[in-house]
TrEMBL record:
Signal peptide: none
Name this protein carries in UniProt: Mitochondrial import inner membrane translocase subunit
Subunit record text: Heterohexamer.
Compartments, as annotated in UniProt: Mitochondrion inner membrane
Gene3D superfamilies recorded: Mitochondrial import inner membrane translocase subunit tim13 like domains (1.10.287.810)
BP GO terms, sorted: protein transport
Superkingdom field: Eukaryota
Family named by the database record: Belongs to the small Tim family.
A Pfam family recorded for this sequence: zf-Tim10_DDP
Job of this protein: Mitochondrial intermembrane chaperone that participates in the import and insertion of some multi-pass transmembrane proteins into the mitochondrial inner membrane. Also required for the transfer of beta-barrel precursors from the TOM complex to the sorting and assembly machinery (SAM complex) of the outer membrane. Acts as a chaperone-like protein that protects the hydrophobic precursors from aggregation and guide them through the mitochondrial intermembrane space.
GO CC field: mitochondrial inner membrane
Coiled coil ranges: none
Membrane topology per record: Peripheral membrane protein
Organism: Ganoderma sinense ZZ0214-1
Length: 90
């Protein structure tokens, strides 16, 4: 009887492709974790209390924080893509 949890034997090319896929998925998970962390930080940093709207100061703080968040996210994504390209070239 075959065990459903036993991994099939893969050739070297398939193994490398699987490893790259897993690395990509892990990198995306790290980016998502970073997104949630930065979102929480911006909210905690900028919003004093929940009301019907944001004050001018809160809005400006959120815009600046989100801008930094997008810059950081863009950097992270480009970095992951560079690492993937370098791994693919090897």
């Amino acid at each position: 009887m075959s065990d459903a949890l036993t991994a099939p034997k893969l050739d070297a090319a398939s193994q490398k492709e699987l490893e790259q896929f897993l690395e990509t998925e892990q990198a995306q998970a790290r980016v998502q974790t970073q997104i949630h962390t930065l979102t929480s930080l911006c909210w905690d940093k900028c919003v004093g209390s929940i009301s019907s709207g944001f004050s001018g100061k809160e809005q400006s703080c959120l815009e600046n924080c989100v801008g930094r968040f997008f810059d950081a996210s863009d950097y992270l994504i480009r970095r992951v893509e560079q690492q993937r390209a370098m791994a693919g070239a090897q």
